[in-house]
Automatic annotation (TrEMBL):
Main location: cytoplasm
SUPFAM superfamilies associated with the record: Leukotriene A4 hydrolase N-terminal domain (SSF63737), Metalloproteases ('zincins'), catalytic domain (SSF55486)
UniProt source species: Catellatospora methionotrophica
EC number(s) stated in the UniProt entry for this protein: 3.4.11.2
Listed name of the protein: Aminopeptidase N
Record-linked CDD domains: M1_APN_like
UniProt-annotated location(s): Cytoplasm
Length: 488
């Protein structure tokens, strides 16, 4: 995600110094999914296996009692009535025996509720759908929820961000829809285990009136009449799903290795299309440094939001960035695409490690901007000003490794974490640093990771113990001293 405060502050981010080379350490073993065989039809959803944990920052959202394997969403939107009608079919693996099942969900009118084909009893209270049916650990079940009603958002955690807005499904001024939902908010349009540690597969179908279009995360499937379909065959965290409905225009392009790219924009946003079309070039730039693009389709959709979001395979860009012009749009779009490696393909298991998303995305953005816009500031000026900002943010927010849940997404999680990566880059040099970055993504593809696993991976991959460097940059209340490159 991109923030208004970040736009001003991160343009001063320091870039690395020297370039040393060396041989990488042996590859680490990817983290494993739960050692659980899935019976019968559920075996088809094995890629959706996760190990859910209770989130340390927002424990009221999500649960570690269920692992959703697959969401099948059949939705219909009426712009005139402002009513969303849906049927959600969830394939779920319970992680323990329980007398009931709980999911995050807004209080829509429930029109149908069944579990494994039989009627079930349940109700939505305080943004929780509780189904009163006993379940057993590792015995999957299918839950079907029919619902309808007028969408409503949920409040953002208290924050001083400049782009804060209500989270979840938003009805725009023309009767269309858009959503942004970091750190939560997917539950405003479908029943969800709304936390990052439980990733799942998705099939999303949205029916809209003639002349309207529906856009969602995932790979576009064949359109059937006024029903638009999207499929995610690799796991997606709920905060990375998206839905947008409007009278969109569309354009297509081809990215690296034949990657299909789709752009969605409104008639009054036609001037943004050339900016959106930088996607193919940006994905090529990122792939050269961080490895192949991790998904089989890409796209960008414009919405009314004041922010931007790395929603999986379909970046959601707020209209404000188009209004700010090509330079800001370019940096922001690159930032969101970088997240597809760092945040989407490899996702933090807990919002405490939000820095693991934003530090990498911001550092990638700064490397790109230094190359594409070299005259904006000298490397020395960037280093000096970034260190000054680092100290200011640590004093204001605390260090990035110890976030305050009431200050979600504060600028320290971006700037200070990216400064830590600059120090790693400076210590390792280009060859070893980019080998580390590529390995982190490829070896941990489509898994949920943590600070501990990142530190362990860095140490194994490089053959050096960087624990103290990482801990100091993540935990120090003041800006750590500069360090030099490792000896050859």
């Amino acid at each position: 995600m991109y923030t208004r405060t970040t736009i001003v502050a991160v343009t001063l981010l320091a870039l690395l110094g020297g370039c040393t080379t060396g041989s990488p350490a042996p590859e680490a073993t990817p983290s494993a999914a739960p050692a659980t065989g899935l019976p019968g039809e559920y075996a088809a959803y094995a890629a959706g296996l996760s190990t859910p944990v209770v989130d340390s920052q927002y424990p009221e959202h999500g649960t570690d009692a269920v692992d959703v394997l697959h969401y099948g969403l059949e939705l219909a939107w009426s712009p005139t009535k402002r009513v969303l009608t849906g049927t959600a079919t969830l394939r779920v693996r319970p992680t323990r025996d329980a007398a009931s099942v709980s999911l995050d969900f807004k209080p829509y009118k429930i029109t149908r509720l069944s579990l494994d084909g039989g009627p079930a009893t349940g109700a939505v209270t305080a943004e929780k759908l509780v189904v009163q049916s006993p379940v057993k650990a590792d015995v999957p079940f299918t839950l079907v929820v029919g619902y309808e009603g007028k969408p409503s958002t949920t409040p953002w955690p208290t924050t001083t961000r400049g782009d804060e807005h209500p989270l979840g499904l938003t009805v725009d001024s023309a009767g269309g829809l858009w959503t942004m939902q970091e750190p939560f908010g997917a539950f405003t349009w479908y029943p969800a285990n709304d936390q990052p540690s439980d990733e799942a597969l998705y099939d999303i179908a949205v029916t809209v009136p003639e002349g309207w279009s529906a856009v969602a995360s995932g790979t576009p499937q064949d359109q059937q009449g006024d029903t638009f379909r999207y499929r995610s065959t690799v796991p997606v965290a709920s905060y990375l799903t998206t839905l947008a409905v409007g009278k969109y225009r569309t354009a297509t392009a081809t990215g690296p290795h034949g990657l299909p790219i789709t752009y969605w924009y409104h008639a009054d946003q036609a001037s943004y299309l050339p900016m959106m079309k930088k996607t193919a070039e940006q994905l090529e730039w990122l792939a050269k440094r961080f490895g192949p693009y991790p998904f089989d389709a890409a796209g960008v959709v414009m919405v009314e939001s004041p922010s931007a979001m790395e929603t999986q395979q379909m970046v959601t860009m707020g209209d404000r960035f188009g209004q700010m012009g090509p330079r800001n749009f370019d940096g922001t779009l690159l930032h969101e695409w970088a997240h597809h490696w760092f945040g989407d393909a490899v996702t933090p298991a807990d919002w405490r490690d939000f820095w693991l998303n934003e530090g990498w995305a911001l550092y990638a953005q700064r490397l790109y901007e230094a190359e594409v816009y070299p005259g904006e500031m000298s490397p020395a000026e960037r280093i000096a000003q970034n260190r000054e900002l680092d100290g200011t943010y640590r004093k204001q927010y605390g260090p990035p490794g110890k976030p305050n849940a009431a200050e979600f997404g504060n600028t320290c999680m971006y700037t200070c974490a990216s400064a830590m990566l600059r120090q790693l880059h400076q210590a390792l040099g280009d060859d070893r640093f980019f080998a580390l970055a590529r390995g982190w993504v490829q070896d941990n593809l489509h898994t949920q990771q943590s600070r501990a696993s990142f530190t362990a991976y860095v140490n194994r991959k490089t053959g050096h113990d960087f624990t103290a460097l990482i801990d100091t940059w993540l935990d120090s209340p003041t800006t750590p001293p500069e360090t030099g490159p490792l000896p050859n």
